[in-house]
Write a structure and sequence with these properties.
GO molecular function, one term: DNA binding
CATH superfamily of the largest domain: Winged helix-like DNA-binding domain superfamily/Winged helix DNA-binding domain
Pfam families: GntR (PF00392)
Protein name: Winged helix-turn-helix transcriptional regulator
Shape: elongated
InterPro entries: Bact_HTH_transcr_reg, Tscrpt_reg_HTH_GntR, WH-like_DNA-bd_sf, WH_DNA-bd_sf
Number of strands: 4
Keywords: DNA-binding, Transcription, Transcription regulation
Largest sheet: 2 strands, antiparallel
Number of helices: 6
Strand order of the largest sheet: 1-2
Radius of gyration: 17 Å
Strand content: 5-15%
Length: 148
């Protein structure tokens, strides 16, 4: 990256990777972190932050022994959308316990970091609340979504 980015370099890189995936330039496995570091002229931590953004959106997934790849499956909704849908899918009501981080990681096949980011967003919008000793509970029901 030759110019300083006002948005944060990792966000600029995540947008470039997202565009490459959407345009089909990357259709399976991404280049290695080392290759991405050389291409973008940044440190490994910056590349990892960019990859984590795309993982949280559900666009990429980490594959042990392989690296990063375009997310599999037909569900292209973001992790946040899928985790919000858990409330309806599991018939949860206000005050009910929301699934644990470990169960969400297993259910969606993503890292704990990605799950925690989505949970923080859900808490920020008032859908969930953390109750000491009880975990997270449903604080409000999401508005019904309209999908084509």
């Amino acid at each position: 990256m030759s110019e300083a980015s006002p948005r944060g370099t990792y966000l600029v890189i995540s947008e470039a990777l997202r565009k490459a995936v959407e345009e089909g330039e990357i259709s399976d496995t991404l280049p290695s972190e080392a290759d991405l570091m050389r291409t973008h002229g940044v440190a490994r931590n910056t590349i990892r932050r960019a990859l984590k953004v795309l993982e949280a959106e559900g666009a990429l997934e980490s594959a042990p022994g392989i690296g990063w790849r375009v997310a599999r499956g037909g569900d292209r909704r973001s992790l946040l959308e899928r985790m919000t849908d858990v409330i309806a899918e599991d018939s949860l009501a206000t005050g009910d316990t929301y699934p644990s981080e470990a169960k969400l990681c297993e259910r969606f096949g993503v890292s704990r970091t990605a799950v925690r980011r989505a949970l923080a967003q859900m808490e920020g919008t008032g859908l969930l609340a953390t109750v000491h000793g009880k975990g997270r509970t449903v604080r409000a029901l999401p508005a019904p979504s309209v999908r084509p």
